[in-house]
TrEMBL record:
This is Dynein light chain. CDD domains: DLC-like_DYNLL1_DYNLL2. It comes from Acorus gramineus (Dwarf sweet flag). Belongs to the dynein light chain family. The keyword Phosphoprotein does not apply. PANTHER family: DYNEIN LIGHT CHAIN (PTHR11886). GO terms for biological process: microtubule-based process. One of its GO terms (molecular function) is dynein intermediate chain binding. InterPro entries: DLC_sf (IPR037177), Dynein_light_chain_typ-1/2 (IPR001372). It comes from the Eukaryota.
Length: 98
């Protein structure tokens, strides 16, 4: 598992949710080829929806920019190896923007 190799760029998640994100990213990377970023993102999003309620969005890629509005306490941006993962719960009101 790659959990120990995760490097956080930004987050406002509780430690327990961060550990879930790292664990699920590791499982996604174990289950899918590293080049299949869409399937990795789908897997992480689906699992986070089940664990922490619906509305999660996940982007997995090697190079991307973003500007999102998210619920407070529901944002993490981290890297594992060459992949960058952005996971956040969407919000209709701009609590925090990144």
């Amino acid at each position: 598992m790659l959990e120990g190799k995760a490097v956080i760029g930004e987050t406002d998640m509780l430690q327990t949710m961060q550990r879930d994100a790292f664990r699920l990213a590791g499982k996604g990377l174990d289950a899918f080829d590293v080049t299949d970023s869409t399937e990795i993102a789908r897997f992480i999003k689906k699992e986070f929806d089940e664990l922490h309620g619906p509305g999660w969005q996940c982007i997995v890629e090697t190079d991307f920019g973003s500007f999102v509005t998210h619920r407070c306490g529901c944002f993490i941006y981290f890297c594992i190896g060459s992949l960058t993962i952005l996971l956040f719960k969407s919000s209709t009101t701009p609590d925090v923007t990144m």
